[in-house]
Amino acid sequence: MMEEARKKAQALTEALPYIKRFKNRFVVVKLGGSAQDDPEILKSIFTDCQILLAVGIRPVIVYGGGRKISGAMKESGRSARFIHGQRVTDAAAIDIVARVLCDEVGRELLGLLREAGGLGFLLNGRDHAFLRAIKKTLPEAPGVDLGFVGEPVAIDATPIHNAFEQRHWPDGKERLPLIAPLACGCGRESGVLYNVNGDTAAAQIARDLHAEKLVFISDISGIYRDKNDPAAIFPHLDRREVMELVRGGVVAGGMIPKVEACVFALEGGVDKAHIVAGALPHALLLEIFTISGIGTEIVLERQQP
What's the 3-state SS for 272-294? Predict the structure, then answer.
């Protein structure tokens, strides 16, 4: 009993400098992988977010819904089509994307957040014009039309800042923003809805909020040194090192856009980006509040000794 109490006290002592440093700063968390389909993992992540709130840190959640969108497309008699990893989204498909992300997945997440003892509200480009985008083109495939697929360019940060002001809500309680990667068009494209890659959307949001951290919750525990040995990960990388891993094929497939999103966020002023496994209990707290962390931390440049 005494040893357990000592470990808890040690953990709090280790966390204290980070709590002081990150107070009133934003931490953008992108839910991904099978973690988003597991209610128990989600409730654990939301509990971690409640702890962040309690110590004055401002978590912002970005979620996707790729599997459920594909399922809804199939139910409607439509098949998912991808070009260079991008989901082709025509007029009928963007309606399905909006319905699944805003009306189905978002509502489910709000319910799970309530079960974890928290309150939240939904943000997206359909109902709030929160995330803004331009039509996405593929330099590697000129002339290919992806339909209603967008490249995020800006956010309206006002509702995010308001979310953490207790006086903004009638009950005086803070609420977590839950953000869908659905964007509205800019300028002449105003009123057009765009489907946006969730990782790219999270990076844009982190940049525009001048976030302290961008954390990707994934199926894997970080960037592997050896793909055949998931236990061996890089605990710390900088931009140059991680892009060398991409060029060398160590980072490949679906990890490439995630890593590129990390670098994009860092180049825009985000202090650190992280990739952690959602299945590990309290992965978010362990990565933020411990010296060693439990995933891969990426920075713009290594500090000189």
Answer: EEEEEECCCCCHHHHHHHCCCCC
Q: Which domain holds residue 182?
A: 26-196
Task: Looking at the structure, tell me whether residues 217 and 189 fall in a common domain.
Answer: no
Same domain (yes/no): 88, 138 = yes
The pTM score is: 0.92
| Largest interatomic CA distance in the chain | 67
What share of the chain has pLDDT > 90, as a percent? 55
Residue 21's alpha-carbon distances to 25, 87, 155, 234, 288, in angstroms, are 8, 39, 25, 25, 11
DSSP category for residue 133: E
**CATH of residue 288:** 3.40.1160.10
Q: Cα–Cα distance between 62 and 179 in angstroms, integer?
A: 5
Task: Please list the helix, strand and coil fractions of the chain in percent, rounded to the nearest 5, in that order.
Answer: 40, 20, 35
**Does one domain contain both 289 and 165?**
no
For residues 244 and 259, give the distance between their C-alpha atoms in angstroms, rounded to a whole number.
Answer: 11
CA 275-233-287 angle, to 5 degrees, is: 40
Residue 260: pLDDT band (50, 70, 90) is very high
What 3 state SS string does 156-197 have?
A: CCHHHHHHCCHHHCCCCCCCEEEECCEEEECHHHCCCEEECC
